[in-house]
Amino acid sequence: MIDTGPVLGVLLAGGLARRMGGGDKPLKTLAGRTILDHVIERLAPQCAGLIINANGDPERFMRWQLPVAADGVDGFAGPLAGILAGLDWAAVHRPAITHVVSVAADTPFIPRDLVKRFVADMATSGAELAVAASGGWSHPVIGLWPVTLRQALHHALAVEHERKIDRFTARYRLATCTWQTDPVDPFFNANEPADLAEAEGLIARGLVA
User: Fold this and answer.
1) Which of 15, 29, 30, 203 has its CA at a distance of 20 to 30 angstroms from the CA of residue 148?
2) Domains held by the chain: number
C-alpha cells in the first residue's frame, strides 16, 4: 500500500480561453460564484494546500490568497507545463510533499473523493501516477503526480518539446480511475458560454452533489 502523505493541489488556470471569448475561464460566474470558487470548495478539503498555475499578472487571483506559479517553460506549452510548475513549486516550498494533484480550474463539479480514489487505485495497481476518466474518455489534465517526476517532465517539455499529456504518461505505469457520469459528469468543463448555461441548469435542478 502506497502512502502519498499530504497532497498539494494545483489549479491549472493557464489556458487562453479562446472559445470563451478570451480572459480567464475560471473567473467566469456560475451560480453566483466564480468557477474557481466551485473548484476550490471541492478540492481544498482533499489537500494539504492549493496553488494556482497561471501566466500573466498574478494580481487577478489575489482575493483567493493562494500562491500563483507561472509556467517555467516559455511559449504556453500547455497543461504539462502547468503540472511541472506545480511539481517545481512543491519541491521548493513544500519539500515534505511527495505528490501533486492537478485539476483543470474550469471543472466546477470535480469529485469530492478525487485524491482518495487516485491514491487507492495507484496502490491497488502498483502504478506510478494516476489520471481521471469518465464516459469512455480520459482526462489526463486531472491526475496525481509524484514530485520526483519533475526532472523527467522538464526534459520532455524543454528538450523533447513534448506537449501531449497522454504521450508523456504512456512512459509510466498509469492508473486510470473512472467515475460514473450519472447524473452529472464530474469532469464537466466550461469551454464555451453555452457550457456555462448548461452548468447553471444542472445546479438549478439539484443534480450536482
Assistant:
1) 15
2) 1
Identify whether 186 is part of a domain: yes
CATH number at residue 128: 3.90.550.10
pTM score > 0.70 for this model? yes
pLDDT (tens digit, 0 to 9) for every residue of the chain, 209 residues total? Answer: 456 678 999 999 975 544 444 568 899 999 999 999 999 999 999 999 999 999 999 999 999 999 999 999 987 789 999 999 999 999 999 999 999 999 999 999 999 999 999 999 999 999 999 999 999 999 999 999 999 999 999 999 999 999 999 999 999 999 999 999 999 999 999 888 899 999 999 999 999 98
